[in-house]
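Example record

One chain of 517 residues, shown exactly as stored in the release files.
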Amino acid sequence: MSLRTSLFAGSALLLSLAVTTPALAQSSDVGIEILQLLVDEGVIPHAKAQEILTKARQADAAKRETEAAKTASTTIDVAYVPETVRAQIKAEVKQEVVAQAKSEGWVAPNTLPDWVDRIKISGDFRARFQNEDFPTSVITNGIVVEGNPPVFPNAAAINRAGGVNIADGFPLLNSTIDRRRSNYRARLKFEADINDKVSVGLRLASGNDNNPVTTNTSFGDYFSKDEIWIDQAYVNVKPIKGLTLTAGRMPNPFYATDLVWDADINLEGLAVSGDYGFNDSLKIFGTAAVLPLQEREIYDDSYLYAAQAGVGGQFASQFGYKAAVSYYDFSNVQSTVNAPNSRLTDWSAPKYLSKGNSLVNLRTDGTTFLAGLASKYELMAFTGQLTYGTGPRQYRLSGEVVKNQGHDTAELLALGLQDSGDTGYQIRFDAGYPVVSERNQWRVAAAFKHVEADAVLDVFTDSDFGLGGTDSEGYILEGEYGVYKNSSVSATWLSSDSIDGLPFSVDVLQLNFNTRF
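Predicted structure tokens for this chain:
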């Protein structure tokens, strides 16, 4: 007979004896406690326990009627069971039940391995329809007088090909054909607390490729299977309160808007973050990071050295503020033009490009083209926000200004390029629920953005506004509404025009269905 069966039968027997014999009141308490234990541990359902108890009481009532005439001399005296003994019996029975439940794999509460409580699983899914509208081009005498030019070089494709022959023409970006497309984004994250000082995180995500600023997977490839990428993989160490060391592929540790960093980007390297609160009205925070950008076997590697310091807090009960100054030094990303008829500095061509940054041909043979970054990028950014909260709703005014202090007009002119802008700014207003997680919750937002050609690295800034890159300005309108718990619909309108470079205008409409868990 198994322990579970024995406990079941023993509990029933104790209850039967207890309720039929007044002198067994102490045993009744023990029997009921054991029966309750079996329910708590999931051995038997509550309904079954109640059935056993009811039958025992019914049997007791029937027996009392038939034995009512018996004399008191038939009463059996039972020794008193002390409270400590009863507690010991209960503890021993519980220990045996839990031990057998774990060894036999019973599906019962409080019997799962300890490590399960230290792991958190979360994720999200987004289905999107996107419409991209370009203005109609008007060409007179071979010159584009209105709309986008039909020839817009795709520098990223040029560099992926290792350079192109000029006579063969350049790979082109779409700048004239309206596009309708659908895609999805799926992400699954695991977080585990190793101990009270160390934790790790791992997130898997969809994506057409290993592009650093998007995890969208587009429909329309004849139902081919899609790829899964490691989107995050990092370890956090918290040696003391308020200090965190993070290594690996990590969530962006910097307080910023999408002016410098796309919302989907994850940085790689080592970061140290700290915060300290003097009181509710004054808290300070800071981050320093060393982040490899491009590893080269025999040439100088590219790194991002970054630091940020900021303050935040609450005042006047419903008002909050947050502000930070950041410095981003993208070391060794400026490309070097080859010596005449040489390709020795092709290594300095960036591995990834978007569009907008000032580019120079690294080749000097007159027949081929390989794109290189003409400017240095040493960014100083100022980010801030003011919030006003009324219950769960919040109203927030935020903004960011960035200036590339490494930009040198004389260097560009010496390379035969036109001067380009080195400044960017964004102002944004949000109203509603900060996170739409319940039905009928809502959020709206409006923003204006201005990003000059060399204000930031074009590969890392917002990939939706202007279809990515720099040298664009315009506005953004957003709205989101909760239709179910943790499920919402949203719409975003992004309208942009180029500032200094080739004309490039586009209006983007995104319709989303969002879920999370």
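Notes: The chain is about 15% helix and 40% strand.
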